[in-house]
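Archive entry. Fields below.
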Amino acid sequence: MVAVTSGLAAWVGSRHGRGRPRALGAALRRACELVGLSVAFLALNLVVGVTAVLVIRRATGAFLSMYLNADVTLVALSVLQAAVWQWWRSGDGGE
Amino acid sequence: MRAAAGPGRAATVLGAATVVFLAVAAFTPISSWLHARLREPGPAAVDADAIVVLGSGVMPEGELSDHSLRRLVEGVRLQRRGVAPLLVVLGPSYGGETEAGLRARLAGDLGVAATAIVVEPEGRTTAEEAVRVAALLRARRLRRVALVTGVHHLPRARRAFAATGLEVVAVPVSERSGRPRRPGDRLALVWVLAQEAAARLLYRAAGAF
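PREDICTED_STRUCTURE:
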């Protein structure tokens, strides 16, 4: 299913848009970079989150579940962080 | 366009490896293989001083979560079959009635005598549950427990309870399929396995076992 829609998008992009076949390779590399940055941000968020839970438990006596760090929204937010960081570093301010 | 140098290239390689990993995890049976390798088999026969049902959660509506219910049903089933005279139910409060209290009521409704049910609602983590149950059973001169919990949680739970000096018979409860058919379910299984692996590292670092 994804292969079909990706192929369709590539055809539309090359026939009717400005997509050049060579630029597709660069786009795939940027996508991989985005995924890698997302993994890095996720790892960082998890380290900070686990540490925060342990520190709060120890310092205040209050109980926070460690499973708060396993919420799926953390993955989505990590991807968002990675995207913003990637675009900011590459100067892609929408121009 | 040249590939970005330094950190950019590292991120690209990491990203490509992640995509390959996710594709393998989602579209091959590797999650089932990991599950089969890491799960502890249930005992052929169970004989214990007490059945201990570990906590799992309560829904915001005040009802036992699916996992909590599965664990409790297995505990009640063992108790009704005569595996042990005592049923210890665990689980703290999540804002309303404690999970242990809810479980005790349901166990009673399912035919377990009130005198056979022990409620322990204070443990908030597996390690705390282990320490509190060990103290409770030591006071009654009991030490062999049938430990009922999710199949993926069991290796860590067993070690935590054994570290308190209790003799543990592990009773795994299936809480999700070990042979998922859909890519999303396979990824969810890998996520659960990864969580438990991380939790085991944390427990080992904290000296829980």
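CURATOR_NOTE: The two ends of chain B are 52 Å apart (CA to CA).
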